[in-house]
User: Fold this.
Amino acid sequence: MKRYMKYIKPYRMAFILGPLCMLTEVFGEIMLPKLMSMIVNYGVAQRDGSYIIGVGVSMVVFSMVMALGGVGGAYFSSKASICFTSDLRAELFSKVQDFSFKNIDQYSTGSLVTRLTNDIQQVQNVTMMGLRMMFRAPGMLVGALIMAFMMNKRLAFVILAVIPFLTLAIALILKTAFPRFTLMQKKLDRLNSGIQEALTNVRVIKSFVREDFEEEKFKEMNRDLKESSLNAMNVVITTMPVMMLSMNITTLAVVWYGGNLIIAGQMPVGDLTAFTTYIVQILMSLMMLSMVFLQSSRAMASIKRINEILDTEIDLTDHEARNKELLVAEGKIEFRDVSFSYDNEAGEKVLDHISFTAQPGQTVGIIGATGSGKTTLVQLIPRLYDVSEGQVLVDGVDVRDYSLRNLREGVAMVLQKNVLFSGTIEENLLWGDENATEEELKQAARSAQADGFITSFKEGYKRDLGQGGVNVSGGQKQRLCIARALLKRPKILILDDSTSAVDTATEARIRGCFATDLKETTKLIIAQRISSVEEAHQIIVLDEGRVIGRGSHEELMAGCKAYQEIYYSQRDHKKEVGA
Assistant:
């Protein structure tokens, strides 16, 4: 609970006033049956109209105060719970944003979404319910018991006999509920992940005519969630009948026993009426407590999942960085005997003893077969992952000694998978520099050969891209991503096979702009086509995580067999296509 106090403190007045307002309502509920019994016992019995009116006015006043207390309690409880969970959700999202790629790999996207939405909602619900019932249920229970004992001790013992039975029943129900709610949340994770995957890849599903397969897969996940939900809800369903049965049996026993007392002249009629109301209040308070505990059981399953995120140790931080104020000034890159493994314990190396240097302003091409480690190599520069062995240096400083913000501000990446966000073209480009002028924006687009197709749109730079850029082609996406990176004016630019969907003529113009507009920027270009890196100052050839060739195009053509094979296979393919 201590960890959540920082989210509660800003709204502590609402947390205090909510339950206190509910106490006002409870006081009224306790007093009304007593006042009603007084009307029956004295006003009606003695036919005293003025007495009835006087007590009736008191009941009206109590009812009005109760109404105000109920409204205040509901308002402050809602404010406290919504604000508390809003801050918790923001903290949870911030923690996920700080996750390294390795941390993110521990959870499915659907699971993270569920924790940020459904699990937080469960905590909000139980907080709101708890604040409303914190004093209301115990207050009603204690107050009604006191009033019952004051009226008739013998009759009150009938109620006390039922309470232990109900307590035991509630305890058994809660013990059964917790694991079922935990399982239900896991099934919800699985369903959300499946929905996200299907919607994200809907074009692939349609192109392979796999709608039936996906529908069947969804039905299975939906059926699993339904069954686990019903299994959990059966516990909730059981609670109400048990409570109602106890209430009715107790009421029947009290009415029978109390009726005998009235016949014997040992109890006024009005007291039995009030006593019956107090029985209902006592049992209703127990029912409310049971529902709070039951909801808490579900919320505890959600809190456990939220805590898993908050307790996740971020394996990649800049807490021990020795030069946090340092900025990337030149863009020199050096790999010193670098090895990397995604799972350090397994020991299978994705990169194996890599060493090379890229001087400021140089263009370095990286080429190799699929799975040779090209993307992994460049991801070590902005510290998306940390090396397992060796060092990666930028401007002669180990990347682990920079602050993550300053290091990544100096590096721009155009990823292999082009990512655009919902919004306009202009809003997407401004990710590179939110303070860029209109002319700087257009210059970056011109350098990326994107200005032409952007201005062909009726809305121009204000064109809405839709979710993920659904209304532009693959080549247009790539050029927009390149323009976004150029607008950042980085010291290091990494292009991860980011011109694969662009024709060779357009690619050549983009490279030409790099040569003129980015003279001082160090450029690393991962490519499948040798023509994309042919003019680079040096080309690195990777195979299974090892450097098997390094040098200029001419040097590799003279001395690297693997490079020669790639070159001639691509040249022969061009000839076949041309023929």
Q: What stands out?
A: The first strand starts at residue 333 and ends at 340. DSSP finds 19 helices and ten strands in the chain. The two ends are 74 Å apart (CA to CA).
